[in-house]
Amino acid sequence: MSHDPAPAPGPGTPRVPPLPEAEWHDTLKAVAAATGPLNIFTTLGRHRELFDSWIGFGSMLLLKGTLSGRVRELAILRTAHLRACEYEWTHHHRIGLDAGLTEDEIAALRLGLDEHPWNEDDRAVLDAADELNAHGTLSDAAWTALAGRFGENELIELVILVGHYHMVAFALNALRVQPEADH
Predict the structure, then answer these.
(1) Separation CA 37–CA 21 (nearest Å)
(2) Which residues cross the membrane (predicted)?
(3) Residue 142 in contact with residue 135, Cβ under 8 Å?
């Protein structure tokens, strides 16, 4: 008898499928009513206790944070690019446009940072996202650039935001959460 592991699912096959609507719990029903039945939610919703805690935290960062929508989406989209998370990129592309980013700016987030004329404020945020991705911390120069633009709460939130979206990208990529048919 062979003890070889089962073959891994293909890249277009979720490792954990979305929860069928008939099995949605109250929190998942409420989220789906507000956002639509997005696969990120219907997949992570399989772990009810974790989902219930996570959705509040994620919603705070996305909807009630101290960072402007522009800063938030620059950081999230750059993180999605750096983590090669197409699901996250696809959803935040639309949100980024709603937050005031242009198509050219969003496209430039997939390039080297010197390949687009970012203003100093945007560049400080993007440099921070890149440093956090590469080193798990910020250099004194990056911190100083941010501290000249943001207050204490915003500084804390930016670091947490980038870390949170790294975690989300890891989960989406590892679980192979698939884009919705209409995206």
Answers:
(1) 9
(2) none
(3) no
Is residue 169 a contact partner of residue 83, using CB atoms and an 8 Å limit?
yes
Cα distance between the two ends of the chain: 44
A 10 A CB-CB count for 5 gives: 6
Structural domains in the chain, sorted by start:
21-63 (no CATH), 69-175 (1.20.1290.10)
Question: What percentage of the chain carries pLDDT values higher than 70?
Answer: 93
Q: Which residues contact 75 (CB under 8 A, 6 or more apart)?
A: 67, 125, 126, 128, 129, 158, 161, 162, 165
* Helix residue spans in the chain (DSSP H): 26-35, 39-44, 48-63, 69-82, 86-98, 103-108, 120-135, 140-147, 152-175
Predicted TM-score (pTM) above 0.85: yes
pLDDT, position 140: 98
Report the alpha-carbon distance of residue 120 to residue 7 in Å, rounded.
Answer: 48
Evaluate if residue 25 carries a pLDDT over 60: yes
Q: How many CB atoms lie within 10 A of CB 81?
A: 20
